[in-house]
Automatic annotation (TrEMBL), chain A:
Keywords: Cell membrane, Membrane, Transmembrane, Transmembrane helix, Transport. It comes from the Bacteria. This is ABC transporter permease. Residues 71-279 form the ABC transmembrane type-1 domain. Belongs to the binding-protein-dependent transport system permease family. CysTW subfamily. The keyword Cell inner membrane does not apply.
From TrEMBL, chain B:
This is ABC transporter ATP-binding protein. Signal peptide: none annotated. PROSITE patterns: ABC_TRANSPORTER_1, ABC_TRANSPORTER_2. InterPro entries: AAA+_ATPase (IPR003593), ABC_SmlMolc_Importer (IPR050093), ABC_transporter-like_ATP-bd (IPR003439), ABC_transporter-like_CS (IPR017871), Mo/tungstate-bd_C_term_dom (IPR008995), P-loop_NTPase (IPR027417), Transp-assoc_OB_typ2 (IPR013611). GO terms for cellular component: ATP-binding cassette (ABC) transporter complex. It comes from the Bacteria. Gene3D superfamilies: P-loop containing nucleotide triphosphate hydrolases. GO terms for biological process: quaternary ammonium group transport. SMART domains: AAA. One of its GO terms (molecular function) is transmembrane transporter activity. The keyword Membrane does not apply. It comes from Pseudodonghicola xiamenensis. Keywords: ATP-binding, Nucleotide-binding, Transport.
From TrEMBL, chain C:
Pfam families: BPD_transp_1. It is a multi-pass membrane protein. GO terms for biological process: transmembrane transport. Residues 60-257 form the ABC transmembrane type-1 domain. InterPro entries: MetI-like (IPR000515), MetI-like_sf (IPR035906). GO terms for cellular component: plasma membrane. The lineage of its organism: Bacteria, Pseudomonadati, Pseudomonadota, Alphaproteobacteria, Rhodobacterales. Keywords: Cell inner membrane, Cell membrane, Membrane, Transmembrane, Transmembrane helix, Transport. Gene3D superfamilies: MetI-like. It comes from Pseudodonghicola xiamenensis. This is Polyamine ABC transporter permease. It is found in: Cell inner membrane; Cell membrane.
Length: 290, 364, 264
C-alpha cells in the first residue's frame, strides 16, 4: 500500500549536501547579507564605517548625475552589445547546430569554446593591439590610404566592439545547444508546406528557440553589466561603467557603505532587467511549454 | 496528372550507398507501399521525392515535370513524418493552417478549409489544443490533416503508423486508405511491416540494399516472390536451398522435376518455373501438413520429430526436425478453429506437401 | 545559396572572435619595443622577459595553486552533493540546487566585493586575516568552481539510465561494486568536464580576485591588468600566448573524452 514515507526516510540522503550548502551560505549568502547591511551604514573618513540605518547611500547614488550617468551608460552599452551578440550569434549558432556531426564540427565548436575560456584579461588586451592608434587596424587602414587617429581606444565604440567580441562565444554556445534540440523534421515539415527558409526561421524555429534566446541574452547582459576588464583597459580612466566604479569606491575610496550600495544597485538592476525580460518572454511561450 | 517517376535515382553519403539505383513509376491516384528491412533506403528514397535530400544522380518527375532541383517548398507535396513533426508552439488549427498561410489564401478560406480538414480526421473539437495535449493517434491525424489540407499533388508518408499501438494502427490504416482513395491522391507509403503494405497498397515495392527487389500488386508479390530475400521478408517460413535436376523416372503418379536439397533428400516438384543452378524452394508453413500415417498421393514426405511448437491464436507452428536433416516449419490450424489435436514435443510426424506447392526462387 | 550565406556569416563572426587571439600570439614575437604594427623584426626576448618578471611567473604559480585547490574543494563538496540531489529523496532539493548554482549567477564584482568586506569584518572581529591571503582566494575561487561541478555532475547523473545500475545489481553485483564499476564510469565524463570547467574558470577569473589579492600575492590575470596599466609592450603578448596555449591544450585534451560544448 503506497503511503508517504516517515520523516526520517524523507530526509535520507540529505547529509552529503550539507558541506556544500554551508560553504555557499558562508562564502556567498553571509557576505551578501553583510554587504546589504553595510549599504545602510554611514561612511566616516576616520573610522570608515559608522553603524546606521539610512538610505543615504542609495539616495546619493540616484541624486548624483555622475552616478546616474554611469548606470545609464552601463545599461545602454549592455543592452546594445547583447542585441548585437544576438543578431550575430543566431546565424552562427544555427549554422553550427546544423553542421554535420564529425571532426570538422568539433573543431568549429572548439573555435568558439576556447576563446570563451581564455579569459577577459587576455582577450581584452588582444583588442587593445587592434584598436590603438598604432595598432593593427590603423596599420591596415593606412595601407588602404586611410590614415589619422582612429579614436577607438578610450571610446564607447571601442568598448562595444571588444565587449561584443568577448561575449559572442557565450551567446553562440548557449544558442547552439538550443538549436541542436530542435528537430530538423520541423523545418522540413514547414518547408514541405511551402514555407521559405526565412519564413521557417521566423514562424517555426525562432519561436521555439525563444527560451534559449532568453538564456543567451540574460547571460550576455549580466556579463556586460558587470564587465570590468573591457571598460578599464579599452575605455581608459575617463570611461566609467558600474563594475570599475564599485571597485574604485570599495578599494580606493574605502567607502564601503557607498560601494556596497553601488554593488546592490548594480545587482538589482541586472536582476530586475533580466527578470523583466524573462517574464515578458515567458508569457509568450508558457502556453505550449508546460 | 500527377504520376511520380523515379529514374535511376541514387543517393550516396560518402562511401555509404543509401539508395543505389531506384527506378519506379507511381501512377496518378495510386498508393504504392515502399517496403523493406531497416536501412534498405526507404526513408532516403521518400525524402528525395519530398526534396529534403538532394539526389546524387538520377531524376524525379511529377506529372512529367522534373522536380529534382526544386526545394520542398515548391513541390506541393504533403509529407507525414514518422514523429509527426507538429509545430509544438502552434495549436492544432494553427498547425493545419500553416500550409494555407504559406499559399497566401484569404482568412475566410483558410478557416473553412482548416475546419473541413479537421472534421475529416474527426478532430474538430481539438482545434485549440497544443500538440503535447494530444494522444499519439490524434497527433498522427493532425499531421495527416496538415499534409492534406494544402491539396498536395503527392502524399508522402514515412512509417506513419509505427508509433501507434496495434488497434489504433489498424484503424488509422483504414482511415488513410479511405482518405487517399476519396481524394484520388498519388501516395507513397513507407513501412517495414508487410501486413500494413499488403492491406493498404495498390502496389507494393520491396526494397533491398538501395534497390527495388520486386514490385507488383500485393497478392502477386505475396504469392510469387522472386528471390529468397523477398520470400523470407514476406514471411515464407521454409527456404530450402538446393538445385533442380531433370528426373525422368519419377514415381508412378507421373513425371516431374527433381530438387536436390543441399541437405541431401531429393524432393519432387511439379509445375515450377525452371531455374538453372543453385536456387531455393520457398515453401510457406501453411503449405506443409503434418500426418501421422501415410502420405497422400505423390506428396513429398519427410519423417521427423516435433522440436518446437508456437501458438498463434488461429494457428500453431510446428518446427519439425526431419531425419533427412532439414528443419521444416508447418503452420496448421489450431484445435479451436477445427485443426487437429496439439502434438507433443518429440512426437513423430510426417511433414508432407504437394509437388506443386511453394515457389522456386533465385538464391540471392 | 542559403548554406553559403550562413557559412559566410559564420566565418566573419568566428574570425571576429578568434582573430584578435591569433594576432596577439603573432605580435608576441615582434621585436617592436611597444605593441605596434607592422613588425620591425622577430625575437623571443619577450618570453624571456615575461618569465623573468616575478609578477608574471609568481602570478602563474599562484593562480595554478589557487585553481587546483579550488577545483579539489569543489569536487570534494560538489560530487557528494550532486549525488544526493539527484538520487536522494529529501524535500527542498530544487531550492538547494539553485543555492549551489547561485555563485554562478551573482555577478563576480558583487560577489568579490561582498567577500572582501566580509573578510575585513571578520578580521576586525576575530583578528584573523583572510583578505590578501591564499585561503581567502581559495574560498572565493571555490565558489567559482563549485557550480560547474554541481551543474555537470548532476547533468551526468540525471542523463544516466538508472536501469543500467539495476541491471548490474540484478546480475549479482553488490552496491559497492555497482557504484565503482557502473556509476563512476558512467558519470566520469561529467566529473572530468566539471573539474575542467571549474579549474579553467577559476584560473581565468579576474573580477572576483580583484578585491582579494594582496601585496606579493597576485593571480596571473591581475598581474596582466596591472602591467597593462603602465606598459604596452609584447611582454603582454608573451604572457597571453602562454595562457592561450595552456587553456587550449587543457581543452583539447579533455575534449577527447567529453563533449565540452554541452556544458552550457
Ligand atoms: N545522413 C546520412 N548520412 C550517412 N548515411 C546515411 C544518412 N541517412 C541515411 N544513411 C544510410 O543510408 C541507409 C539507408 O537509410 P534509410 O534511412 O533510408 O533506411 P530506411 O530504409 O528508412 O530504414 P528504417 O526502416 O530503419 O527507417 C542506411 O544504411 C543509413 O545508415
Ligand atoms: Mg526510415
Amino acid at each position: 500500500m503506497p503511503s508517504s514515507p516517515p520523516p526520517a526516510a524523507r530526509l535520507r540522503g540529505s547529509g552529503p549536501v550539507l558541506p556544500a550548502v554551508l560553504f555557499v551560505l558562508a562564502g556567498m549568502i553571509a557576505p551578501l547579507a553583510l554587504m546589504l547591511r553595510t549599504s545602510f551604514d554611514r561612511f566616516d573618513p576616520e573610522t570608515l564605517i559608522v553603524s546606521a540605518l539610512t538610505l543615504d547611500n542609495y539616495l546619493r547614488f540616484f541624486e548624483t548625475p555622475f552616478f546616474r550617468e554611469v548606470l545609464g551608460r552601463t545599461i545602454a552599452i549592455s543592452a546594445l552589445s547583447t542585441a548585437i551578440c544576438l543578431i550575430l550569434g543566431l546565424p552562427v549558432a544555427y549554422y553550427l547546430a546544423r553542421f554535420p556531426t564529425g571532426a570538422a564540427k568539433s573543431r568549429l565548436l572548439m573555435l568558439i569554446l576556447v576563446p570563451l575560456l581564455i579569459g577577459n584579461a587576455v582577450r581584452t588586451s588582444a583588442w587593445m593591439l587592434i584598436l590603438n592608434d598604432h595598432g593593427v587596424l590603423a596599420a591596415g587602414l593606412a595601407r588602404l590610404g586611410i590614415s589619422g587617429p582612429l579614436g577607438l581606444m578610450y571610446s564607447a565604440s571601442g568598448v562595444m566592439i571588444a565587449l561584443v567580441s568577448v561575449l559572442l562565444p557565450f551567446m553562440i554556445i548557449t544558442l547552439n545547444s538550443v538549436f541542436e534540440g530542435i528537430e530538423t523534421t520541423l523545418e522540413e515539415a514547414a518547408g514541405s508546406l511551402g514555407a521559405s527558409h526565412l519564413t521557417t526561421m521566423r514562424r517555426v524555429v525562432l519561436p521555439l528557440t525563444l527560451p534559449g534566446v532568453l538564456a543567451g541574452c540574460v547571460l550576455c547582459f549580466t556579463l556586460s553589466m558587470n564587465a570590468y576588464a573591457t571598460p578599464v583597459l579599452i575605455g581608459g580612466p575617463k570611461f566609467h561603467m558600474m563594475a570599475p566604479t564599485v571597485y574604485q569606491q570599495i578599494t580606493e575610496a574605502m567607502n564601503w557603505p557607498f560601494g556596497s550600495a553601488l554593488a546592490f544597485v548594480l545587482m538589482g538592476m541586472t536582476l530586475g532587467l533580466t527578470v523583466g525580460l524573462t517574464l515578458a518572454v515567458q508569457r509568450r511561450y508558457r502556453r505550449w511549454m508546460a | 496528372m500527377s504520376d511520380v517517376v523515379l529514374d535511376r535515382v541514387a543517393k550516396h553519403y560518402g562511401a555509404t550507398v543509401a539508395v543505389e539505383s531506384m527506378s519506379l513509376r507511381i501512377g496518378s491516384g495510386e498508393l504504392v507501399a515502399l517496403l523493406g528491412p531497416s536501412g534498405c533506403g526507404k526513408t532516403t528514397t521518400l525524402r528525395m521525392v519530398g526534396g529534403f535530400v538532394p539526389l546524387s544522380s538520377g531524376l524525379i518527375t511529377v506529372g512529367g515535370r522534373d522536380v529534382s532541383a526544386l526545394p520542398p517548398s515548391r513541390r506541393n507535396m504533403g509529407f507525414v513524418f514518422q514523429n509527426y513533426a507538429l509545430f509544438p508552439h502552434m495549436t492544432v488549427a494553427q498547425n493545419v493552417a500553416f500550409g494555407l498561410e504559406m499559399r497566401k489564401l484569404g482568412r475566410a478560406e483558410i478557416e473553412t478549409r482548416v475546419t473541413g480538414a479537421l472534421e475529416r480526421v474527426r478532430l474538430g473539437a481539438f482545434r485549440d489544443r497544443y500538440p503535447r495535449q494530444l494522444s499519439g493517434g490524434q497527433q498522427q491525424r493532425v499531421a495527416l490533416a496538415r499534409a492534406l489540407v494544402v491539396e498536395p499533388d503527392v502524399l508522402l508518408l514515412d512509417e506513419p503508423l509505427s508509433n501507434l499501438d496495434a488497434s489504433l494502427r489498424q484503424e488509422m490504416k483504414i482511415e488513410i486508405r479511405q482518405l487517399q482513395q476519396a481524394l484520388g491522391l498519388t501516395t507513397i507509403f513507407v513501412t517495414h511491416d508487410q501486413d500494413e503494405a499488403m492491406s493498404t497498397a495498390d502496389r507494393m515495392v520491396l526494397m533491398h540494399r538501395g534497390r527495388v527487389e520486386q514490385a507488383g500488386p500485393p497478392a502477386e508479390v505475396y504469392s510469387r516472390p522472386r528471390s529468397a530475400f523477398a520470400a523470407g521478408f514476406l514471411g515464407v517460413a521454409n527456404l530450402v536451398p538446393g538445385r533442380m535436376t531433370r528426373m525422368d523416372t519419377g514415381s508412378d503418379t507421373g513425371r516431374g522435376d527433381g530438387f536436390v536439397t543441399r541437405a541431401g533428400p531429393v524432393l519432387r516438384l511439379r509445375g515450377h518455373r525452371s531455374i538453372q543452378g543453385d536456387c531455393v524452394l520457398a515453401l510457406r508453413g501453411e503449405e506443409v501438413t503434418l500426418r501421422t500415417g501415410q502420405p497422400a498421393g505423390d506428396e513429398n514426405a519427410l519423417s521427423g520429430r516435433v522440436a518446437l511448437a508456437t501458438f498463434h491464436g488461429v494457428a500453431i507452428e510446428y518446427h519439425v526436425e526431419t531425419e533427412a536433416g532439414l528443419r521444416l516449419v508447418a503452420r496448421v490450424p489450431a484445435p479451436g478453429v477445427g485443426g487437429p489435436e496439439v502434438m507433443a514435443h518429440g512426437a513423430e510426424v510426417l511433414a508432407c506437401w504437394a509437388p506443386d506447392a511453394g515457389v522456386l526462387v533465385a538464391e540471392t | 545559396m542559403i548554406r553559403f550565406t550562413y557559412a559566410a556569416i559564420a566565418t566573419i563572426v568566428i574570425g571576429f572572435i578568434v582573430l584578435p587571439l591569433v594576432l596577439i600570439v603573432w605580435m608576441s614575437f615582434f621585436s617592436n619595443p611597444i605593441l605596434s604594427f607592422p613588425p620591425e623584426g622577430y625575437t623571443l626576448d619577450w618570453y624571456r622577459r615575461a618569465w623573468s618578471m616575478s609578477d608574471f611567473r609568481g602570478g602563474f604559480f599562484t593562480s595554478l595553486q589557487i585553481s587546483l585547490c579550488a577545483t579539489v574543494l569543489a569536487l570534494v563538496l560538489g560530487i557528494p552533493a550532486s549525488m544526493a540531489l539527484v538520487r536522494g529523496s529529501f524535500p527542498g532539493r530544487d531550492t538547494i540546487t539553485t543555492l549551489l548554482m547561485a555563485p554562478m549567477l551573482v555577478p563576480a564584482i558583487v560577489g568579490g566585493s561582498a567577500l572582501f568586506v566580509f573578510y575585513l569584518e571578520v578580521e576586525l572581529l576575530s583578528g584573523v586575516q583572510v583578505a590578501g591571503r591564499l585561503a581567502g582566494l581559495i574560498i572565493a575561487h571555490g565558489l567559482i568552481a563549485l557550480p560547474w561541478v554541481v551543474k555537470l555532475v548532476t547533468t551526468a547523473l540525471t542523463g544516466m539510465n538508472q536501469s543500467v545500475e539495476e541491471a548490474a545489481a540484478s546480475l549479482g553485483a553488490p552496491a559497492r561494486v555497482v557504484f565503482l564499476r557502473i556509476t563512476v564510469p558512467m558519470i566520469w565524463p561529467g566529473v572530468v568536464a566539471g573539474g575542467l570547467f571549474a579549474f579553467v574558470n577559476s584560473f581565468i577569473d579576474l573580477e572576483k580576485s580583484l578585491f582579494l589579492v594582496g601585496p606579493g600575492r597576485t593571480t596571473l590575470q591581475i598581474a596582466l591588468i596591472n602591467y597593462l596599466e603602465w606598459n604596452f609592450d609584447p611582454t603582454i603578448g608573451a604572457v597571453a600566448t602562454a595562457q592561450i596555449t595552456f587553456v587550449t591544450l587543457l581543452l583539447l585534451v579533455t575534449s577527447r573524452y567529453v563533449k565540452l560544448h554541452r556544458a552550457f
